[in-house]
User: Which sequence fits this backbone?
C-alpha cells in the first residue's frame, strides 16, 4: 500500500511509534488479503488509519489542551509537534493570566481585519468584478454632449442614434432604451395593477450579449410587424407568473392596447438600464432629429480590435456631420463615448475608493497598535525571559514559545475578524441597496483574496512583534536584565513604541480630518434650502395608460377631477399632480429664451427644467409663491398660454425687472411656444441637492397635457397608510380601471437623495472613531508603562518636595509631546490627502480649517484624557512605598 | 533511578505479552497474544500509545528484525522488555500478590 493515503499518513503521524504502527497496519493488510481475497480491504485500511490518526495525534492534542502532561517531566527530546502542543498550552495559560492584553490585541486585530475585508469585498463586487455580459470590455455607452453647457452625459435623440449606428465603422452595433420606464395598467382578476414597461431596441440584449434564461430575447425584426414581442424580467416572471415556464408563448396585452407574445424571460442578473422594469417591449428608432427630443440611453459594442479612442475620434467626426445636417437641432452637440464599465461604477467610484483608503489606514493603525501591545509586553517580560534564559532555555525554545503565543493571538484575532467581516458584508449587502444604490451590491460576499490579505498582514505583524522579546532576551546579558528591573524599558523598545504612537496619532488625524470634511460637507448639503416642505407630504403614481386617455382632453379632465377630489378629503390641506417629483432622478428640460429679447443662435439657448402640473401642486409641495399667482380655472386649454417660472429663471432673463406679464419662448412640445409669465415661485432643487438651483418653468396641465403617468402629491397630517387608502378610494371613484402605484412619503425621497453622502460620512465617522480609540489605547499603554517604570524616580522627586501638579504636568507633557508630533505629521498628510476627497465635498474646501482644527482638537482632547489617567496615578505614588521598590 | 513506577493494567498486559511472544514480539503478534490470552479486543491506537509510553519510561526497547511471516520484507520493530521493565513487573506482581492473599475463597467462581 503506497497510495496517497499512505503518504499522507506518513506525513501526519508521529515519526517513531506512528510509523511503526503504519508498518504493522501494512502487514495486517497483506495478511487480510491473503486470507480473504476480496472483502473491502481498502475501506478497512482507511477506517483503521483514521482511527490510528485520531488516537495518536488528535488524542494528544486534546490531552495537551487540557493541560495534562502526556509524559512525565523532563522527557526525552520531544518531536516538533509535541513541542508545539506544549507551547500552545503554555500560551493559553499565559494569555488567560493577562486578559487585558489578550482582549485588546484580539479585538484590535478583529476590527482591522473585519472592516478591511468587508469594505474590500464591497469594492470588489461593485468596482472590480466584470459585468455579467459577454466581453463587457467591448461595450461603450454613447451620450450626447452639449458642449456650450458642458453636459457630457445627455440622453440621445433617436434620429442621431440611428445615424450613429448607420455611419460608424468602429461600432459593431448600436442599441438604445428609453431612459424611463413606462408604467402600464394590467387588470388581473378585476384588480388593476401597475406594470413598468421598458422600451428597448430589438437588438438591445444582443448588443449586451445577454441570453434569455428561458425562451429567447427579441428577434431582429421584432416591433416592425404585427404581433409585438415581449420579454419579462426574472422578478416579474416570478411575481406574476409564479415562475411558470408556460409564460413563454403566452399572449401579453398592454393597457395601451398593444398585444404580443412573451418570447422569453431574462436572467436575474443586473441590467445596465431598466433594472427595475417588469416587462421589456420593442422600440424602433424612427423619425428624425426634428420630430422628437432626446430621451434614449445608448449602448454599443466595439468591433473586434477597435479601441475606445478610435470610436471617440470616429464619433466626433460623425457628430460634426450631424451638426451640419441639422444645425437647428444639433448645433453645439457632440458625442461622448464612455466604456460601460466606467459608466456603471462612475458615480460611486470615488466614495468606494475613499472608504477603501480609510479602512486601509485603519488596518495600519490596528497593526501599529498590536505591535505596540506586543512591545509593551515584551518589555514587561524582559525579566521573565532573562530568568528563563539564564536557567538554560535556548534562544530557539524561547522564540518558539513566543511565536506560538503571538500566533494564538493573531489566530484568534483573525478568526473574530473573519466573523466581523462576514456580518458586516451581509449587513451592507442586505441593508444598503435601497439608500445607497450601489450597482450589484446584493451579490457582495466576503472576498477570499481580501480575507487572505488582511489576515496575512495582521498575522505577520503579530508574529514579527511577538518575537521581539525573544530577540531582546538573547541579546541582553541576563545578569544585566535581571538587575535592571524597575529601571525603565529597553531604550530601543521604548523608542519603537513612541514611534508607533506617533504613527497611530498621525494616521488617526488623517481619518478624522476625512470624516470631519465629509460631515461638514453633509452639513452644508442638508442646510441647503430645497425649496419644498417635504414634511407631511405623501406621493403616489397614477398611470394613465388605458386607451381612453389617448385623448388629451380626457387626461386633463381626469387629472383635475382627481386633484379636486383628493383635495376635498378630510385632513388634506392641498393636493396636486406632476409627472416628475423633485429629487427623484427623472425630469424633462428644454431650451428657452425671453420672447421680448433677441433669439439666441441655434444650440446656444439656455436650458430650463419644465413641468406640467395639475391642481394645487405648489401648495401641496410647499413651494412658496414669490410674485403673481399660480394656476387656476382661468388657465384653460383654449385660454392664453401662461407659465409660472422659478426665481432663478426670472433673475437670469430679466435681472432687476418685473417678470410678470413678460413673454417666454419654449420649444417643448411645439417649437416656439410663447407663453406669458403669470407668477414666480421659489427655486426647487429638482435634480439633485448638490447643485445650484436651475431655471424652471411650470405649465398648467390643461395647456400641456403630455405624459402618461403623474404623481399625486398630497399634503396632510393624516397617517400615510390611512391617507393612501383614502386616495385609492377616490381614484376608484373617478376611474376604477386605474391603480395607485409607488406610494412614498416625500421625506423619504429627500432622504434618499442625500443617502450616499450621509452613509459615507457615517462610515468615515465610525472608522475615524475606531482609529482614535485605537490610538488612545496605544498612548495609554505607553504612558502607563512609563509611569510604572519610573515609580521610583517619581517617588524620589515627591520625597524631595515636588508638588503633585508638577508630576502631573511632567507625565502629561511626556505624552503630549508624542501626540503633538503625531498631530503635526497627520495634519501635514491630511492637507495633501484631502485633495482626493474633493469630488465628494459640497460647499467646503478640502483644506477646510474647521475640519482640520476639529480633528486635531478632538484627538488632542482624547489624548489629554488618556494621558491624565496614568499621570494622576503618578501623583498618588506614596514616596515611601516607591522608594522601597527595588 | 527512582523506584519502579506502578504499571497500569494494560501496561502489564503489554509487557507480559511481549515476554510471552519471545522472539516473535512484533507489534502484531503482541497484540494478538493479548487478544488471545485476555479475550478482549485491543484498540490499535491505545496499544501503540502504550508501547510509546512504555518506551519513554524505559520499560521496553526494540530492535529491527524482519517479520516472522516474510523474512524478505522490510524490517519491523521487535520489542523486548528492559531490566527496569522486568523490575516494574516484579513490583506490580508482588503488590498484587500481597493484595490477593487469602482472598481466593471469596472470589472463587460458583
Assistant:
Amino acid at each position: 500500500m503506497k497510495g496517497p493515503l499512505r503518504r499522507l499518513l506518513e506525513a501526519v503521524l508521529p515519526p517513531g511509534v506512528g510509523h511503526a504502527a503504519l508498518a504493522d497496519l501494512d502487514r495486517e493488510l497483506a495478511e487480510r488479503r491473503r486470507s480473504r481475497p476480496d472483502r473491502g480491504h481498502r475501506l478497512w485500511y482507511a477506517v483503521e488509519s483514521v482511527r490510528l490518526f485520531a488516537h495518536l495525534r488528535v488524542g494528544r492534542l486534546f490531552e495537551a489542551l487540557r493541560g495534562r502532561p502526556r509524559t512525565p517531566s523532563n522527557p526525552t527530546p520531544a518531536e516538533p509537534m509535541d513541542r508545539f502542543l506544549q507551547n500552545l498550552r503554555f500560551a493559553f495559560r499565559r494569555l488567560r493570566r493577562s486578559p487585558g492584553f489578550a482582549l485588546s490585541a484580539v479585538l484590535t486585530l478583529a476590527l482591522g481585519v473585519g472592516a478591511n475585508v468587508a469594505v474590500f469585498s464591497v469594492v470588489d463586487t461593485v468596482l472590480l468584478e466584470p459585468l455579467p455580459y459577454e466581453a463587457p470590455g467591448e461595450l461603450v455607452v454613447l451620450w450626447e454632449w452639449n458642449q456650450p453647457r458642458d453636459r457630457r452625459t445627455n440622453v440621445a435623440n433617436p434620429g442621431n442614434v440611428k445615424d450613429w449606428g448607420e455611419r460608424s465603422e468602429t461600432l459593431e452595433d448600436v442599441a438604445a432604451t428609453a431612459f424611463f420606464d413606462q408604467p402600464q395598467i394590467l387588470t388581473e382578476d378585476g384588480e388593476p395593477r401597475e406594470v413598468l414597461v421598458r422600451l428597448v431596441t430589438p437588438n438591445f440584449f444582443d448588443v449586451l450579449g445577454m441570453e434569455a434564461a428561458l425562451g429567447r430575447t427579441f428577434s431582429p425584426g421584432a416591433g416592425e410587424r404585427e404581433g409585438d414581442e415581449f420579454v419579462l424580467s426574472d422578478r416579474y416572471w416570478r411575481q406574476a407568473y409564479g415562475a411558470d415556464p408556460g409564460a413563454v408563448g403566452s399572449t401579453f396585452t398592454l393597457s395601451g392596447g398593444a398585444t404580443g407574445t412573451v418570447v422569453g424571460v431574462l436572467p436575474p442578473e443586473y441590467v445596465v438600464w431598466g433594472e427595475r422594469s417588469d416587462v421589456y417591449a420593442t422600440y424602433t428608432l424612427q423619425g428624425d432629429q426634428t420630430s422628437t427630443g432626446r430621451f434614449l440611453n445608448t449602448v454599443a459594442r466595439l468591433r473586434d480590435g477597435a479601441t475606445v479612442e478610435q470610436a471617440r475620434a470616429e464619433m466626433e467626426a460623425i457628430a460634426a456631420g450631424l451638426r451640419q445636417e441639422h444645425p437647428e437641432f444639433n448645433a453645439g452637440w457632440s458625442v461622448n463615448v464612455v466604456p460601460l464599465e466606467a459608466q456603471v461604477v462612475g458615480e460611486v467610484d470615488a466614495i468606494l475608493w475613499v472608504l477603501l483608503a480609510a479602512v486601509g489606514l485603519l488596518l495600519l493603525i490596528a497593526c501599529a497598535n498590536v505591535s505596540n501591545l506586543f512591545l509593551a509586553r515584551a518589555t514587561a517580560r524582559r525579566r521573565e525571559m532573562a530568568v528563563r534564559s539564564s536557567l538554560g532555555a535556548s534562544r530557539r525554545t524561547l522564540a518558539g514559545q513566543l511565536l506560538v503565543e503571538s500566533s494564538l493571538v493573531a489566530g484568534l484575532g483573525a478568526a473574530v475578524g473573519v466573523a466581523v467581516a462576514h456580518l458586516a458584508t451581509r449587513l451592507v449587502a442586505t441593508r444598503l441597496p435601497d439608500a445607497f444604490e450601489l450597482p450589484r451590491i446584493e451579490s457582495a460576499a466576503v472576498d477570499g483574496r481580501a480575507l487572505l490579505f488582511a489576515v496575512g498582514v495582521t498575522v505577520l505583524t503579530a508574529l514579527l512583534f511577538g518575537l521581539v522579546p525573544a530577540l531582546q532576551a538573547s541579546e541582553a546579558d541576563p545578569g544585566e536584565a535581571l538587575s535592571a528591573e524597575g529601571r525603565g524599558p529597553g531604550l530601543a523598545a521604548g523608542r519603537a513604541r513612541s514611534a508607533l504612537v506617533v504613527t497611530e496619532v498621525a494616521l488617526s488625524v488623517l481619518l478624522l480630518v476625512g470624516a470631519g470634511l465629509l460631515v461638514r460637507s453633509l452639513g452644508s448639503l442638508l442646510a441647503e434650502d430645497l425649496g419644498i416642505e417635504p414634511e407631511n407630504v405623501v406621493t403616489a403614481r397614477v398611470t394613465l395608460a388605458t386607451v381612453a386617455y389617448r385623448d388629451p382632453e380626457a387626461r386633463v379632465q381626469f387629472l383635475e377631477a382627481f386633484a379636486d377630489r383628493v383635495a376635498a378629503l378630510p385632513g388634506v390641506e392641498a393636493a396636486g399632480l406632476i409627472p416628475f417629483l423633485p429629487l427623484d432622478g427623472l425630469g424633462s428640460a428644454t431650451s428657452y429664451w425671453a420672447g421680448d429679447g433677441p433669439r439666441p443662435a441655434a444650440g446656444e439657448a439656455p436650458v430650463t427644467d419644465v413641468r406640467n402640473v395639475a391642481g394645487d401642486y405648489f401648495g401641496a409641495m410647499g413651494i412658496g409663491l414669490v410674485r403673481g399667482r399660480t394656476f387656476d380655472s382661468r388657465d384653460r386649454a383654449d385660454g392664453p398660454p401662461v407659465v409660472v417660472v422659478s426665481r432663478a429663471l426670472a433673475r437670469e432673463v430679466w435681472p432687476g425687472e418685473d417678470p410678470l406679464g413678460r413673454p417666454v419662448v419654449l420649444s417643448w412640445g411645439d417649437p416656439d411656444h410663447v407663453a406669458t409669465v403669470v407668477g414666480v415661485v421659489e427655486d426647487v432643487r429638482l435634480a439633485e441637492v448638490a447643485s445650484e438651483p436651475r431655471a424652471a418653468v411650470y405649465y398648467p396641465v390643461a395647456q400641456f397635457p403630455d405624459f402618461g403617468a403623474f404623481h399625486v402629491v398630497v399634503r396632510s397630517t393624516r397617517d400615510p397608510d390611512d391617507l393612501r387608502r383614502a386616495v385609492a378610494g377616490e381614484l376608484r371613484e373617478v376611474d376604477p380601471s386605474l391603480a395607485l402605484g409607488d406610494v412614498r412619503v416625500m421625506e423619504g425621497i429627500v432622504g434618499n437623495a442625500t443617502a450616499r453622502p450621509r452613509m459615507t460620512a457615517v462610515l468615515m465617522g465610525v472608522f475615524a472613531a475606531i482609529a482614535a480609540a485605537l490610538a488612545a489605547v496605544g498612548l495609554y499603554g505607553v504612558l502607563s508603562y512609563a509611569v510604572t517604570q519610573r515609580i521610583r524616580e517619581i517617588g524620589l522627586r515627591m520625597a524631595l518636595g515636588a508638588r503633585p501638579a508638577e508630576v502631573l504636568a511632567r507625565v502629561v507633557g511626556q505624552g503630549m509631546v508624542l501626540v503633538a508630533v503625531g498631530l503635526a505629521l497627520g495634519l501635514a498628510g491630511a492637507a495633501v490627502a484631502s485633495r482626493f476627497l474633493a469630488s465628494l465635498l459640497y460647499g467646503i474646501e478640502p483644506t477646510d480649517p474647521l475640519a482640520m482644527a476639529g480633528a486635531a482638537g478632538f484627538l488632542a482632547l482624547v489624548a489629554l484624557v488618556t494621558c491624565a489617567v496614568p499621570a494622576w496615578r503618578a501623583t498618588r505614588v506614596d514616596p515611601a512605598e516607591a522608594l522601597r521598590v527595588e | 533511578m527512582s523506584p519502579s513506577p506502578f504499571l497500569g493494567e494494560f501496561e502489564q498486559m503489554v509487557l507480559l505479552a511481549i515476554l510471552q511472544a519471545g522472539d516473535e514480539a512484533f507489534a502484531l503478534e503482541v497484540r494478538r497474544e493479548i487478544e488471545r490470552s485476555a479475550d478482549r479486543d485491543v484498540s490499535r491506537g491505545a496499544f501503540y500509545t502504550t508501547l510509546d509510553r512504555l518506551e519513554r519510561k524505559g520499560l521496553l526497547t526494540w530492535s529491527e528484525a524482519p517479520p516472522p511471516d516474510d523474512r524478505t520484507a522490510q524490517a519491523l520493530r521487535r520489542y523486548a522488555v528492559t531490566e527496569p521493565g522486568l523490575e516494574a513487573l516484579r513490583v506490580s506482581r508482588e503488590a498484587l500478590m500481597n493484595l490477593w492473599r487469602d482472598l481466593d475463597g471469596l472470589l472463587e467462581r460458583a
The two ends of chain B are 45 Å apart (CA to CA). Chain B touches chain A at residues 26-28, 43-46, 48-49, 51-53, 55-57, 67, 69-70, 73-74, 76-77 (CB under 8 Å). The beta strands of chain B are 60-65, 76-81.
